[in-house]
Design goal:
Elements (H helix, E strand, L loop, with lengths): L9 E8 L15 H17 L3 H6 L2 E2 L2 E8 L8 E10 L3 E10 L5 E10 L1 E2 L11 H9 L2
Antiparallel strand pairs: 1-4, 2-7, 3-6, 4-5, 5-6
């Protein structure tokens, strides 16, 4: 099995403003919505790399989430501008992605997470231990 330990880490940044509908009755972001923010940032990173979920489907692969580690540090609030840094740490035998969410003004860390996603054959669900060639080529070209 090939483990890609020497890959350069790829980090991307994106910004969101907390919408009203993401708040809970205590007027802070409901804890489950942070997962939505991670998904949005992961899609943004894959788009910037040039390998989206549509590309995965076209190649007959999927990357379902296998594990997530979450650390809630401070609550986000309505209209707060958040900076999300998403870092691809490994891509074989699984995607390991780290996330950090900061307050854009103070740069204070308010949330961090790590996910592991396993590459599987989209039809059979069988685990694949090698990233699709098209994805690897996009990673190699990413600046």
């Amino acid at each position: 099995m090939f483990y890609n330990v020497f890959m350069k880490k790829i980090s991307t940044e994106m910004y969101i403003e907390v919408p009203f509908y993401d708040l809970d009755p205590m007027k802070v972001v409901w804890h489950g919505n942070y997962l939505k923010y991670l998904e949005v940032s992961r899609c943004d990173m894959l788009s910037k790399i040039g390998y989206t979920y549509t590309d995965m489907m076209n190649e007959g692969v999927a990357y379902p989430v296998a594990t997530m580690d979450l650390k809630y540090i401070k609550s986000a609030r309505f209209l707060q501008k958040l900076k999300i840094i998403t870092t691809l740490v490994e891509y074989e035998p699984a995607l390991i992605i780290k996330y950090e969410i900061y307050d854009d003004k103070s740069n204070e860390l308010i949330f961090k997470a790590k996910s592991m996603q396993i590459c599987v054959d989209a039809k059979t669900g069988e685990s694949l231990y090698k990233a699709p060639d098209k994805f690897v080529k996009k990673l190699e070209k990413y600046e």
